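User: C-alpha cells in, sequence out, please.
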C-alpha cells in the first residue's frame, strides 16, 4: 500500500467503470482489492515467482 494514489487508485477506478476489466494484484505481504471491484479481481499473496508456475 505504499503508493495507492499514484498506481493503484487509477486501476481500481478503471476496473470499476469497465465491466469487462479485471484487476490482478500479486503481493507477497498484502494482496488486496477494494470491495467495489472484488468480483472483478484476482488477489494472489505470493512473490512474482508464481508467474512461472502459472505459465507452465
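Assistant: Sequence out:
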Amino acid at each position: 500500500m505504499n503508493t495507492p494514489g499514484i498506481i493503484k487508485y487509477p486501476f481500481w477506478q478503471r476496473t470499476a467503470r469497465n465491466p469487462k476489466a479485471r484487476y490482478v494484484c500479486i503481493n507477497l505481504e498484502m494482496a488486496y482489492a477494494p470491495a467495489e471491484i472484488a468480483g472483478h479481481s484476482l488477489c494472489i499473496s505470493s512473490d512474482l515467482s508464481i508467474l512461472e508456475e502459472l505459465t507452465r
